[in-house]
Amino acid sequence: MFDSTNPAIITGSTTFNNLTMNTTADGAKTITFPTGSSNAQIINGTWTLIGTFDKTLTLVSATPSTAWYFQIASPFTSGPYLNVTDSWSTNTTKITPG
Fold first, then answer.
1. Residue 39, SS3 per DSSP
2. What gap in Å lies between CA 34 and CA 11, rounded to an integer?
């Protein structure tokens, strides 16, 4: 789902285990998430976000200016070259580009 430079669209609430989104090998990538708390993305284990120079990882809402939700129990790694808009955590975790 996250390989290649093709945009990825996630629908509904999804549970991921040890999720990695990395543009190093495949190039720039946009991942679109559904809006609303009932469509929260649940990440069990780790969540690693890595973008690189000229290969930005972009995480956006399916509806601009409307929040997409995520929930993660443990800390996660966020690196440089991330473009994140309209995200909302169900706990205190934040996506902070490095």
1. helix
2. 6
Q: Among 5, 63, 12, which residue's Cα sits nearest to residue 85?
A: 63
At 37, give phi and psi (nearest 5°).
-65, -25
For residue 90, which phi and psi values (nearest 5 degrees)? -80, -5
Long-range contacts of range 14-17, CB-CB < 8 Å, 24 or more positions apart? 14/41, 14/42, 15/42, 15/43, 15/44, 16/41, 16/42, 16/43, 16/44, 16/47, 17/43, 17/44, 17/45
Q: Report how far apart, in Å, the C-alpha atoms of 4 and of each of 7, 23, 57, 65, 89 are.
A: 8, 9, 12, 27, 27
Under DSSP, the state recorded for 88 is: E
Name the band, by pLDDT with cuts 50, 70 and 90, for residue 94.
low
For the whole model, what pTM was predicted? 0.87
3-state DSSP helix/strand/coil % of the chain, to nearest 5: 5, 45, 50
